[in-house]
Amino acid sequence: MTGGAILLLALAAGLCAQQPASQSTPGTVTKIDAASSTLTLKTDAGQEVTVSMAPKASFRRVAPGETDLKNATNIAVTEIAVGDRVLAVGTVAPDKSVTARLVVVMSKADIANKQSNEMADWTKRGVIGLVTSTANGAITINVRGPAGNKPLAITPSADAVIRRYTGDSIKFQDAKPSTLAEVKVGDQVRARGDKSEDGGKMTADEIVSGSFKEIAATILSIDPVEKVLRVNDLATKKPVIIRIDKDSNLRKLPPQMAQMLAAQNRPAEDNPGGRGGPPQSQADAGRGRNGPGGPGGPGGGRGGRGDLAQLLERSPAMTLADLKNGDAIILLSTVGANDQLNVITMLAGVEPILTKPGTREMALGGWSLGGGMGEP
Description:
This protein is mainly β and 376 residues long. It contains five helices and 18 strands. The two termini are 14 Å apart.
């Protein structure tokens, strides 16, 4: 689902309620045949649908975010352009073609402008952190700032948009409508709104939550056709099925980088005279250089291993062809049906940083790949 698709959902529901004998078909315009007054739409499911116009069909343009037609502008069919988002309301034939009595249009340019403005607002008024408590219609998260972690109590506004990641998609824009009651302690939350003067409270216009899983594992088998790996979870010693999709971020640490990173983060007793050394300050002791809420883990670093998250995007990309049975990996994922893990980020070449010095034992320890939420 695209950002434009999200903008049409409430409008579609409202129109179908007003016209119960009609069906609404949302999609993006891929072709226009002016001579026959037909449109070709690509639906959000990836299907191509032909839309023909019923006699006296009407065409309305609405601004992104509108949920009814009271502010719509009448337009001609010739004003519809390829790339526009369209909601065709009418009769759907068995072949899925649509005879539309009403065509509602959100222009490609208007959607792009709205998304650009929203991204700027997320940067200005957005926060991200791990949920520490939920009670009385509010949630509290830990937000990292220049002075370290600080609790922030978030209450949704009366018309707040609340969404949640599902196990089926790792995209921010694919998060589904949700409620505050679905948010749990330990979830990651991204919220956008106005803070109180002391910075301890927020009234949120939008809240997006998600539950993410991070494991270290060794590969048992690889199916390159289905893009599925069977791995052994190093913590539970049990096999797990993980799936790669086109949005998964696959990287591999070069051997020299992995060895250097392992040595830098090795405890002092395992690395006498080495480069790891003590934490940089008393405030960092016990939580590493980044600390909870820093860049190293979901909403923050874990155990001072933020270097891994910082180096991730500088590591070379890889494909499944670069992996073999027995390789160690660290992965961050959503949890789908039957506990299948859908990979957000996977990093290989991690044997040196997972292996305890002087042994063959490997464990995730404090290493982390960073937060699971994609950018708005």
